[in-house]
Amino acid sequence: MTETVYLRPIALAQSPQSEDGAAIRLGGTLVWASRFALIRRKDGRIVSRARLGARDVPGAIAALPEAQEQWADLARVHAPIVCGTRTLRIDQPLVMGVLNVTPDSFSDGGKFLDKPDAALEHAHAMLEAGAALIDVGGESTRPGAAAVWEGDEEKRVVPVIAALAQAGVAISIDSRRASVIAAALTAGAHIVNDVSALRHDPRTAPLVAQSGAPVVLMHAPGDASDLHADGSYRDVVLDVFDALRARRDAALAAGIARDRILLDPGIGFGKTLAENLLLINALPLFHALGQPIVFGASRKRMVGALAGEVPAHKRMPGSLALALHAAGCGIHMIRVHDVPETVQALQVWRGLRDAALTDFSQMAD
Asked: Which end of the chain is more exposed for a tag (fewer CB within 10 A), N or C?
């Protein structure tokens, strides 16, 4: 039987001094964890779970190399991401602004399609509001969306990316097609955001490796025809963790440097409301993969499901709640539609974290 182990943070500390130093910093962020669950799973079934304080973990995992690696990865400090002339430090949550140049995206489809001036105006408004980078996409990945010919997708995104690049903007290309990604990188995009985690197009992994561009690998259970299909999980948290680990390792095998890989648990892709909630509550676990984490739940269906079926354009308050929760779990990059509101909320969150981390009255006598 195959056994796997997981080291999941289960209690976050207000500061390390509040725990008399018995806490670790998650992913080089402003978030600290003090208690952990050491979970063993055989053939997909959890067989044991031990709860440990931070000081107890090293002894408990002394004979478990896999857990030792996760323990080191939980505390891994990630290097800044270089995007042309811009350097993005990820020791606090950054905001990725969504720019959909599509006719049918679930929230703002058609708003910027064939309207380059409007698209650029919106992008610059997001940047002025505090977005660290702009995520440009030319294909809707909502459930049931029609497939897009890669030539059309390229025509949608390249002019916008080229104009933003001339202005010195940090840009990610949201695509799963190698030809579109290649054209976007040539036009000036810096980061590849692939919702298929390099599975859709076999040409993408070698392209990304050769380019040296950072890549976001997102979890989705389905294949090329439907990313939302086949969402069957024995334990959604651990299954997604395993799947992301496998995609990370596949990227490494393809020659992509480890410090170029970011991971996204894929909220809303082939997951029920209950499964999404379980994943979001388990976000600290994903630091154990040792990569920066991207989180995207802005205006998604789960917000409507929890808030009286409000339509997508009225889901900003619920999206803010999810963004703040993600920040509190040490997420490095948060993908959002409502940039000014999210940036303001995160500025207040940052003030609270700074105050907690510098409050030495919490130190033990």
From this structure: C
Residue 224 is encoded by which pair of tokens?
């090329």
Mean model confidence pLDDT for the chain: 92
For residue 158, CA distances in Å to 99, 153, 162, 163, 296 come to 13, 9, 6, 9, 23
Measured CA to CA, the distance from residue 23 to residue 18 in angstroms comes to 9
Dihedral-angle region of residue 67 (phi above 0 means left; psi in -120 to 50 means alpha; beta otherwise): alpha
Is pTM beyond 0.85? Reply is yes
**pLDDT, position 1:** 58
Q: Which domains does the chain have, with CATH numbers?
A: 3-74 (no CATH), 81-353 (3.20.20.20)
pLDDT band with cut points at 50, 70 and 90 for residue 113 = low
Lowest mean pLDDT among 150-154, 218-222, 280-284, 335-339: 150-154
Active site residue ranges: 300, 335
C-beta separation of 194 from 177 below 8 A: no
* pLDDT value of position 222: 81
| CA distance linking residue 309 with residue 166, whole number of Å | 41
Predicted confidence (pLDDT) per residue in 298-335, tens digit: 999 999 999 999 999 999 999 999 999 999 999 999 99
Query: Could you report the per-residue pLDDT of 6-37, keeping only the tens digit for each?
Result: 999 999 999 999 999 999 999 999 999 999 99
Cα angle 209-210-216, degrees, rounded to a multiple of 5: 35
- Polymer length in residues for the chain: 365
Burial of 341 (0-12, 13-18, 19+ CB in 10 A): middle
User: Who's near 162: CB < 8 A, 6+ residues apart?
Assistant: 187, 188
CA distances from 65 to 58, 302, 343 (A): 11, 37, 40
Residue 123's Cβ-side half-sphere holds a number of Cα atoms within 13 Å equal to 28
